[in-house]
From TrEMBL:
Cofactor(s) listed in the protein's UniProt record: FAD
Keyword NADP carried by entry: yes
Cofactor binding note: Binds 1 FAD per subunit.
Location of the Pyridine nucleotide-disulphide oxidoreductase dimerisation domain: 333-441
Pfam family, one: Pyr_redox_2
Family: Belongs to the class-I pyridine nucleotide-disulfide oxidoreductase family.
Name used for this protein in its record: Oxidoreductase
Molecular function (Gene Ontology), one example: NAD(P)H dehydrogenase (quinone) activity
Amino acid sequence: MSAYDLVVIGGGSAGLTAARTAGRFGARVLLVERDRLGGDCLWTGCVPSKALLHVAAEVQAARRAGAYGLAADSGPADLAAVMGHVKGAIAAIEPHDSAEELQPLGVEVAYGPAVFTGPRTLTAGEREVTFRYAVIATGSAPALVPVPGLAEADPLTSDSVWDLTELPGRLVVLGGGPVGCELGQAFARLGSRVTVVEALERLLPREEPRASQVVQERLEAEGVTVVTDYRAEKVADGMVHGAGGPLPYDVLLAVTGRRANTTGLGLEAAGVKVDERGNVRVDGRLRTSNPRVYAAGDVTGRSAFTHLGGTQGASAAADALLGVRRRIDYAAVPWVTFTDPEVARVGLTAETARTRYGSRAQVRTLDHERVDRAVADGRTEGFTTLVLDPRGRIVGATVVAPRAGETIAHLAAAVRLGWTPSQYAKTVHPYPTYADGPWHAALLDVHDRLARHRSVIGGLMALHGRARR
Ligand SMILES: Cc1cc2nc3c(=O)[nH]c(=O)nc-3n(C[C@H](O)[C@H](O)[C@H](O)COP(=O)(O)OP(=O)(O)OC[C@H]3O[C@@H](n4cnc5c(N)ncnc54)[C@H](O)[C@@H]3O)c2cc1C
Ligand SMILES: NC(=O)c1ccc[n+]([C@@H]2O[C@H](COP(=O)([O-])OP(=O)(O)OC[C@H]3O[C@@H](n4cnc5c(N)ncnc54)[C@H](O)[C@@H]3O)[C@@H](O)[C@H]2O)c1
């Protein structure tokens, strides 16, 4: 039986980062992967989706070229060529996540499913292993909602959509969350007739209502049919059926959420408990109910993003091996939905702030008609919202704009550091960029405060004038 300081189960974003971190500490580390290193992000998530969105954006730009006197091509794209670009991006990134890259860090890789056999033992494929600590980083998988006929219709999911070789004619996307909106827009731009169906009253229901509205208007302007408040009741005869009428499809894509991968892991043998939603239950230090076993990434239900999964993986490894407690400030973790325009957020929405602070919450919104870069690009539909707590600190922000994902990083720092808008505004931002949105939103607050303290400033000016006389 081989013994390790740390055994990491799952070689996705969370597991790879946990293993690399532990390897850098000089620990004896085993990473167990049942399939292929890289996980969801590399093979079926972030990388393929962003590569697809890139091609779709280029196709969209070509379609608009007619407005500037160039011959615009309005036919459908060649999906095989598009997927060639997607696979190229995966192939270029794959080596960074490989066993060869891990080896110099002292991380061993074993292939096969990991199954706990006791609180400090597991099998990794054929091997029996003991560990001082383990990190469960087995991720999540697409979950089908229990709609009669849906499973039988064998819809595509975000796992299998990458195997398409021909562009769907009529594509119905069940689920208007980030995956549904990103993929729905991409396929529409490539030439499919897309219907995005959302059970709740708006797309991207976790975001600011205005962000949902901007995205819906954009999708509709690009030919997508958006159906909200629609509960699918049955799938039969090539149609989704619900109170809103039948929705016929050639290809059905079900992207209605995900479920943690815990089946067959032997969690009971390890004394690891799951919560009522099937996620591995963790405390603030990412320890499970077995203090020798940690969990990180999607499997915890406390992360659905690569950057957060990685951060959790590193924290879990440092906590286990060094006793270093790195509290993750979840309130300051940004995320982005990569539609066009992008929807980027950190922290509270205006509504959650009002629920928490009542009327003492303050909200500053700047329309991007006031952002010169947006005007130059013809992209003034976006906006920036800053949400302030009663002490005037930035506790939330939403940016809707092209490249909002780049803009949100500085706002995440502001939330983490508890900055007020005036502290944020002290950093000079380059002109003309979309970062002007948050900067000017912060300046709005500064100017408002100046206006409210006009008499004090008047007094100061008078004093200064007298001193100079
Ligand atoms: C379409 C799509 C687009 C996305 N886009 C983004 C984005 O733009 N930005 C972003 O931040 N996030 C994005 N995400 C989310 C992101 O992909 C996930 O949050 C992230 O990949 C989760 O990482 P993880 O390490 O927790 O799990 P995973 O990456 O799923 O890795 C888990 C690994 O564990 C292995 N495994 C499972 N069970 C066992 C077992 N018993 N034994 C051994 N190995 C096992 C699996 O084979 C897998 O390799 C997207 C997701 C989807 C579906
Ligand atoms: N850019 C990113 O960081 C990114 C991109 C994609 C996905 N992700 C993450 O991956 C996870 C999964 O994303 P997702 O979009 O699959 O799930 P999700 O849970 O975020 O969204 C699913 C949507 O489907 C809707 N829905 C549920 N049942 C339905 C039904 N019967 N009919 C119609 N609609 C229904 C839900 O109301 C919800 O809006 C999310 O947590 C997301 O944050 C991140």
